[in-house]
Amino acid sequence: MLTIDEQIKEIQEVLRKTPHHKATNGFIGAMRAKIARLKDREIEQSGKRGGGGGGYQVKKQGDATVVIVGPPSAGKSTLINQMTNAESKVAPYAFTTVTVIPGMLKYNEAYIQILDIPGLIEGAKEGKGRGREVLSVARGADLLLIMTDVKRVDAFSGMMDELLGAGIRINENPPKVLIDKKTSGGLDIFSNIKQSIDKETIKEIAREYGIKNGTITLQEKITLERLFDAFSENRVYVPAIFVINKVDEKPDYKEVIDGEYVAISADRGEGVSELIQEIWKALRFITVYLVKPEEDLGMGNPIVMKEGETLKDVALKIGPDFTESKKLVKIWGGGAKFAGQEVSFDTKVKEGMQVRFI
Ligand SMILES: Nc1nc2c(ncn2[C@@H]2O[C@H](COP(=O)(O)OP(=O)(O)OP(=O)(O)O)[C@@H](O)[C@H]2O)c(=O)[nH]1
Ligand SMILES: [Mg+2]
Predict the structure, then answer these.
(1) Are residues 87 and 194 in the same domain?
(2) Which mutation among 76, 77, 78 tests ligand 1's pocket best, with the greatest number of atoms within 8 A of CB?
(3) Which ligand is nearest the CA of 88, by number?
(4) Do 160 and 91 fall into the same domain?
(5) Does 30 reside within a domain?
(6) How many structural domains compose the chain?
(7) Contacts for 109 with CB less than 8 Å, ≥ 6 apart
(8) Pocket of ligand 1 (CB under 6 A)
(9) Residues 77 and 201 in one domain
(10) Per-residue confidence (pLDDT) for residue 24, from 0 to 100
């Protein structure tokens, strides 16, 4: 039996020899889909091999989980020690941290769990340096801090390759592709947008992913990569903040490094409070205030929610019995058309909303 890597190489060889023209588009699309599926299998297998025990399965706690990824010695442990109650070992050599070290940051009434993990190196997705475990922790994050130090800014692109290869999509929305599987009748492709990939190619690719009957509606101009993402079942879409540490070592960094990043000097605590504000923004938290029936309006009982959640989610956060017993909900402040407006439990939360369940 050929290994997955050998199978990928074989298909790449076939692709190399295939001339590109209209008649071969479908074939080329299907071959590339085959490669993407083999890579998916690799991710699934590594999920089974990695992630098990040894301090790598840390329970998610708090309102959100933020994972710090970066090459060895970037200052990840120094940073978690600055932001939380954690005491993660810091030392000037690689792989000081060998398991997941959790810490908790309380900010604006939110409890944000931060996880410090071992360094991420090239070859992680193949298992180097406990890479599979590290990547599986990263997959579970609500937000990633992708961090390096000022003298190794090129490490960002290597880390992005590792994360991409593990099925993690950074600062990307899921593809707007609706898939309605059926049991017979073949495939139908719909789109109101002019696509550059022809319908037959899309069908070939869908079939490669085991989708043989049904309708596929494309609501964006799709690329091959995003089409594979849409059909694959193991993609996660995670927001990230890029962080450059140790800027004390290169005072002229602003002139030489472009792009969007947060600059810090973790061991001096410089830039750390700005970073915490960026984390808060990126997590899209919303604070609502619970007003008990006998209470005056006020900001006494804050509850931290996430954008897109509803008043029903607020009630559920208090408890299932509470949710069961409440029939009405009234709101004031953020999101209310007038004071004490009675609304449905499906109403989305808004910053500053005061809520009374009756
Ligand atoms: N100059 C400077 N050194 C720093 C800064 N932050 C951390 N360091 C040093 O960088 C070295 C590595 O720091 P760690 O926090 O252990 O790095 P890490 O990313 O957790 O490393 P691993 O656990 O090995 O992956 C230590 O010697 C730190 O004192 C900083 O802002 N400036
Ligand atoms: Mg460390």
Answers:
(1) no
(2) 78
(3) 2
(4) yes
(5) yes
(6) 3
(7) 287, 302, 304
(8) 70, 72-78, 90-92, 94-97, 118-119, 245-246, 248-249, 265-268
(9) no
(10) 86
